[in-house]
Write a structure and sequence with these properties.
Radius of gyration: 22 Å
Mean pLDDT: 90
Structural class: alpha+beta
Number of strands: 11
Strand content: 15-25%
Helix content: 40-55%
Order of helices and strands: EEEEEEEEEEHEHHHHHHHHH
Largest sheet: 5 strands, antiparallel
Keywords: DNA-binding, Transcription, Transcription regulation
Pfam families: AraC_binding, HTH_18
Number of helices: 10
InterPro entries: AraC-bd, Homeodomain-like_sf, HTH-like, HTH_AraC, HTH_AraC-typ_CS
Strand order of the largest sheet: 1-10-3-6-11
Protein name: Helix-turn-helix domain-containing protein
Low-confidence stretches: none
Length: about 270
């Protein structure tokens, strides 16, 4: 009998269904499961009822919960009956997982953004699981722990209180993922699917700062790290952090850190 490691991935993969599929395990799935819907729709058992699962829905299932999944035809926007459902799924177990799961009360379903960082974690775990010969199984364990902790962060930020705060967090994530590129308020609002005025109001109400001020804060932190740790010139560090104008960057950097970028680099590299 094999020994389960403290945090062990038992199976991981990506599935895309174009035919009906039904799975029912009323006694539970015996292990923990993360299932992230990426494409199409299906139905899953939550709280004893079958509910619709859409892209961005993440299922968190413990070993004893009844589990059921149904993929069947439904009407698409053209009025045609189609079957389409894509998902990442990871079955895992271990003493570390038991302890992690028990830290908080966890909902069976949460809505998440399908960001490249989150999808990248799922993809990497799937790739590690596919390796025929793997002398470093600890890598898969570490990725799994990172994913669990990332889900903790998502739960901490998950706006169970209102749809409005959910939209505000989507704006926040957009800024953090795109801060190194130039974008306008219109781009942020269009990504979320709301008006510019509503986006500005929701973000300010939720976080107590403006979208552009938060963007500036993220960009300054990016530039600060690159000035200290990268071999880039100061101009390159500024440009790669989303500042197209070095004169403006120099001014806001000095205002924030009370010294010029050149002085900042000199002082902090003395301590490396």
């Amino acid at each position: 009998m094999s020994v389960i490691e403290p945090c062990q991935v038992l199976a991981a993969g990506f599935s895309f269904h174009r035919k009906p599929f039904y799975q029912n395990q009323p006694e539970g799935i015996k292990n923990y499961l993360f299932r992230l819907q990426t494409d199409g729709r299906c139905q899953a058992c939550i709280g004893g009822e079958m509910v619709k699962i859409e892209p961005g829905d993440l299922l968190l299932c413990n070993p004893t919960e009844p589990y059921a999944l149904k993929i069947d035809s439904e009407l698409n926007p053209m009025g045609e009956q189609t079957i389409e459902s894509g998902d990442y799924h990871i079955f895992f177990a271990g003493a570390w997982v038991d302890e992690w799961w028990g830290r908080h009360k966890r909902p069976t379903k949460i809505k998440v953004q399908l960001t490249e960082s989150l999808l990248g974690l799922f993809r990497q775990i799937v790739l590690e699981q596919r390796r025929i010969s793997n002398p470093y199984p600890e890598i898969s364990e570490y990725y799994m722990k990172i994913l669990c902790l990332e889900i903790d962060r998502l739960l901490a930020e998950h706006p169970a209180s209102s749809h409005q705060s959910y939209l505000a967090y989507r704006i926040k994530h957009y800024i953090e993922e795109n801060a190194s590129s130039a974008f306008k308020l219109e781009d942020v609002a269009a990504h979320i699917g709301i008006s510019v005025s509503r986006a500005v109001h929701l973000f300010k109400e939720t976080f107590g700062t403006s979208i552009m001020q938060y963007t500036l804060d993220v960009r300054l932190n990016m530039a600060r790290e690159r000035i200290i740790f990268s071999p880039m010139s100061l101009e390159q560090a500024a440009e790669s952090s989303g500042f197209a104008n070095y004169t403006y960057f120099h001014r806001v950097f000095r205002s924030r850190f009370r010294m010029s970028p050149k002085e900042f680099r000199s002082i902090h590299r003395e301590h490396l």
